[in-house]
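Protocol step 4 of 6: structure prediction from sequence.
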Amino acid sequence: MKALIIAAGKGSRFSELTENTPKPLIPILGLSLIERVILTAKEAGIREFVVVVGYLGERIRAVLGNRDRFRVKIDYIDNDEWKKGNGISVLKAKQLLNENFFLLMSDHIFDARILKGLVNYDMKGSVVLAVDRKEALSGDTKVLENNGKIVEIGKDIENSNCIDTGIFLCSPKIFSYLEESAKEAKTELSDGIVGAARNDDAEVFDISLINPYIPIMRKEIKALWMDIDTKDDIVEAEKLLIENACKGRNDLLATYVNKPIENFVVKRAVKKGITPNQITILTNIVAYVSTILFLKGHLLLATLITFIVSFMDGVDGKLSRVKISPSHLGKMEHAFDFLFEHSWYIALAFYLSRTHGLTSIMLVTFIILFDCFSYYCQQAFEEVKRGYQIVDYGELERIFRKFDGRKNTYIILILFGVLLNSPFYSMIIMTFWSFVSAGFYCLRAMKHLYDLDQKEYL
């Protein structure tokens, strides 16, 4: 399925910014508005785009190119009537769109889940409009719907119960409605939708019905969309994008110390062109510096560096989500995390073996053993209960997740041990806590899986 992106207008509300730059190229966290539209649509599986350009269109062409940068196909159409309503821009693309297509605005940011929902939508009319149930603000296009059909749409209608998100699933028949309205000198897209609505031919897709829980993020995130019309909208969008990139249900250190530092770094890194892979490589280099320092007995410096690694480790993932640049290779990050984290404990154990013999080696062996067992218990649960992580499945798990046996808890214990000149006792407590954590997740996974078996049996 193709996506048509309207990118012809000047953006009068951004007059000071769009005098020499088209509005679709206004940047938000290192990506222009239209780049965000394309990358978000690509997340939903769309690989072919038709972009209608007008005001300073050559600059949009220069930035986007036609294929290589995003690994998608982009065709361009020039709209020399861009000063008219946006319905004219849609009509310009008629010859290139002979099957169902998405219609998107180049100055909106939105959630890929909206498009994924529309991909599977059983469209019965000529157009489906994604709508939001929130209260309309000044400038919003209001919609009155009844039983899933659009009754009325427009900025000035008196009665409404939802608002237009600017995201459409259209059949080619939408062009006939736009042509009819253009004959009456009505050139806005909404004029064509009004015509379809009068024909009982326009439906709505309610984005509030999209499941807000995202398993990989361990939290609920409402389906996002924003119409970027002012500088204040840019500020709000940046805050929202960074907040949505933060995972939920974290431990205390990650929540109250690392998160604000990570957000500060991410906001600046995206504007400097720093990539997630660069952060990942740097994180691993710094992590193994700490390992070497543990081996040599520089325990306080080594421990302080582990705290630096702790927040660095959260930056690459957030950076990837903010820049909409996920990769299959990025899935390897957690494997490398496991490797360097446990290299710290092994290096510390080898240093402590000078005074405590094989006991410290035995302790770190059990830490690794229990950590691996805990991980596989969680994996066993997630393989059965797809869409959920056990650390977020129940209230007890959510509480325990804040201080369970993992990197941030261990480095805090090591720090206390080093400061109290008793790092060996830190190893003992870490071993005990890794055992408790493994036992907890084992028992909880067994309970939940047993309950599922009983439900299936009944």
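Step 5 (inspection) to follow. The two ends are 43 Å apart (CA to CA).
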